[in-house]
Amino acid sequence: MQLSEKVEKFIKEVELFIQYGVQESERQDALTFLHRYKNDALALQLMRTFYSSLPETHEETIARISLIQKKDDIFLLGLSTARHSYLYLATEQKALFLGEYGYEIVEPEALALFGYPDTKEFFEKYPALISCEEYEPVGVTGTMFCPVCSAAVGECHLLGCPVEVCPWCDGQLSRCGCRFEKLGVEVLEDDEELVELERILKEKGRIPYTREQCPSYPSGTDE
Ligand SMILES: [Zn+2]
Ligand SMILES: [Zn+2]
Fold first, then answer.
1. pLDDT digit string, tens, across residues 152-175
2. Which residues sit with Cβ closer than 5 angstroms to ligand 1, an ion?
3. Beta bridge partners of 209
4. Are residues 209 and 151 in the same domain?
5. For the chain, percent helix, then strand, then coil, each to nearest 5?
């Protein structure tokens, strides 16, 4: 599948959830908000999780995403609608609903990750989402999927994709000499060798696609 098709498909899915989950009068706002974040894998995961499993049947649109804290690739985010606020944990692969803001948190262990031993201490530090900065969409187009083989963030590239990083030398897997060295051959000529390469790569642990591997990251240009 082409990269653009894959992004389109993901966005279409969220649009469909909006169609079914959001009341008609708010639907246009929901779509506008979605398109503001259309290049941001993390926000898209968050929106898909939110709209596909609305915490209750509130049928509301997202009005704001707040960045509370960030630890490596994990974001602690607040999500506000006109009448409710929620707490989420999100990466580019997945978003997890933690609970309604200000109330009991269903997964308090998630807060421990950010240095809060319990829900009470967390809400003492962050009594209101509005005091947190807004989560800004990344301005890089299409980095959610590998621009060559269309692997999603967290997925393995297609074997032979020039973007894949070599797990042995951290170089470019399709250019470095590691594959010949490991197989003990000069050139790769038959399917058997490819199968064997795939096997030893798997054994070593292939490096899945991350946004940073995208050649246009972080100095990418907008479309
Ligand atoms: Zn790739
Ligand atoms: Zn290598």
1. 878 899 999 999 999 999 999 999
2. 146, 148-149, 151, 157, 161, 163
3. none
4. yes
5. 35, 15, 50
Is the model's pLDDT at 15 over the cut of 50? yes
CA distance 102 to 87: 9
Nearest C-alpha neighbor of 87 from the set 63, 107, 73: 107
The ligand placed nearest to the CA atom of residue 182 is 2
Shared domain check, 18 and 127: yes
Residue 140 confidence (pLDDT): 53
Examine residue 124 and state whether it is found in any structural domain, yes or no: yes
11 and 116 belong to one structural domain? yes
DSSP label of 37: T
Domain total for the chain?
A: 2
CA trace torsion 127, 112, 155, 134 (10° rounding): 20
What tens digit of pLDDT does each residue of 74-121 get?
999 999 998 899 999 998 889 999 999 988 888 888 999 999 988 899
Return the ligand number nearest the Cα of 173. 2
pLDDT band at 57 (very low <50, low <70, confident <90, very high): low
